[in-house]
Amino acid sequence: MDDVEQLRQQAERVSASGLLGQSRLARLFKFLVECSAEGKAPKEAAIAIDVFGRSSSFDVTQDATVRVYVHNLRRRLDQYYHGPGKLESVRLAIPRGEYRLTVIPWGQTEASASPATTVPPWRRRMFWGRATQVFGLALIAVLAAIVWSQRRNPSGDWQEIRRSPVWAPLLQNDRPIIVVVGDYYIFGDTEHSFSVKRLVREFSINSRDELQQYLINNPGLAERYMDVELAYLPTSSAAALASVLPVLAASEQRRVRVVMMSALDPATIKYADIVYIGLLSGLGTLQNAAFAGSRFAIGESFNEIIDRRTQRHYLSEATRYEGFPRRASGEPSYRDYGFFSTFAGLGGNRIVIIAGTQDEGVRQTAELVTDPARLDELRRAVGGKSDVEALFEVSGMDRVNLSGKLLVAAAPNVADIWKAR
């Protein structure tokens, strides 16, 4: 069997596994299979145009879409060959720095994928469990002490921030403020045994009630999946809380309560002022409201934000920077994105969203919307409106947010947000 025949045979098996789905990742794979079978190694720009529909003016230095998707494809191939394809004698690989598929002996692979990358995509997040949950609660207690110190020692900056059009509508009433932290509900997989074998995160199951409903709809899994009363709190949320809570501590008479998204009562959204802090993927019941009347939309994953008006795609590089070219300094630099929105709620309350595609975006967005100069820039960009949304580009290095800049600011269509709700 020659190399081309082996390549096509392996490609058929990978596609049949379902690991690539029907997304752009599958289109990329098919494109690379055809090019590789013809002995071609396409350039990054050609892939951007032919697979992702970019224009001929595509700039590889400003848009990392191709590199990110190729990196994802490498990971999916690893999943296949450490799962359904583990008995194959050969495997498909994408050589580093190239955009083509090659057939190599199975043992001639890079380091084996970790357990978190060998499970199906919907189970890809594995967590520490109760210890992390306890840590999150302790951290909130520490942040409460920070807020108390800010109440007792208010600075001129805090007063200026609180008077901005972004924060003033929320702070100038007597409603309770609910700070909602984007956590992740986790359930146990017993694998039909008598004890939990692993912990599972599924983005469509965000609470115990949703797990129960899922099991009602899928009775065959009722004896396999179980609630273990666990949730995961990303560390970026803690840093963002530290930036935002002092702004909310405008009065000792104002009640500020911190809750996890998995414990949020949807009815609360109608009467309380809500401030969400966390990853876009943790928005839960607030996701529809955040994007229903928005200029922006979430792309094929929570790592991607789309500007509906320009059709430009903003894809985070934050979790994949190790595969990107290094800058002249010798250090990897990458882009993440932050999303901010504040708008009127159904009952005259206010909703504030401080989010990011990854941790760097969350932390930097919280810093930007609590900085007087950046708030003034945002005010001028939207003409002083109180209903505002903004997209920020965040520069990161080694999982640290370095800086951020405003890319787009607009006024959300509040009428569309609450239409038919």
Architecture overview:
The protein is of the alpha+beta class and 421 residues long. The protein folds into three domains: 3-120, Arc Repressor Mutant, subunit A; 144-183 and 234-417, no CATH class; 184-232, no CATH class. It is 35% helix and 22% strand. The protein is built from 15 helices and 15 strands. The chain has helices at residues 3-16, 24-37, 44-50, 65-81, 115-118, 130-152, 156-162, 168-171, 208-217, 235-248, 268-271, 287-292, 359-368, 372-381, 414-417, and strands spanning 90-93, 102-105, 177-181, 184-189, 198-200, 225-232, 256-260, 273-279, 296-298, 304-307, 312-315, 334-344, 350-356, 388-397, 400-410. The strands form four sheets. Strands 7-3-8-13-12-14-15 form a seven-stranded mixed beta sheet. It has a three-stranded antiparallel beta sheet with strand order 5-4-6. A hairpin with an 8-residue loop joins strand 1 (90-93) and strand 2 (102-105). The longest helix has 23 residues, at 130-152. The radius of gyration is 23 Å and the shape is globular. The model is unreliable at 109-135 and 321-329 (pLDDT under 50).
Note the topology.
Layout: H1 3-16, H2 24-37, H3 44-50, H4 65-81, E1 90-93, E2 102-105, H5 115-118, H6 130-152, H7 156-162, H8 168-171, E3 177-181, E4 184-189, E5 198-200, H9 208-217, E6 225-232, H10 235-248, E7 256-260, H11 268-271, E8 273-279, H12 287-292, E9 296-298, E10 304-307, E11 312-315, E12 334-344, E13 350-356, H13 359-368, H14 372-381, E14 388-397, E15 400-410, H15 414-417
Parallel strand pairs: 3-7, 3-8, 8-13
Antiparallel strand pairs: 1-2, 4-5, 4-6, 9-10, 10-11, 12-13, 12-14, 14-15
Helix pairs in contact: 1-2, 2-4, 6-10, 10-13
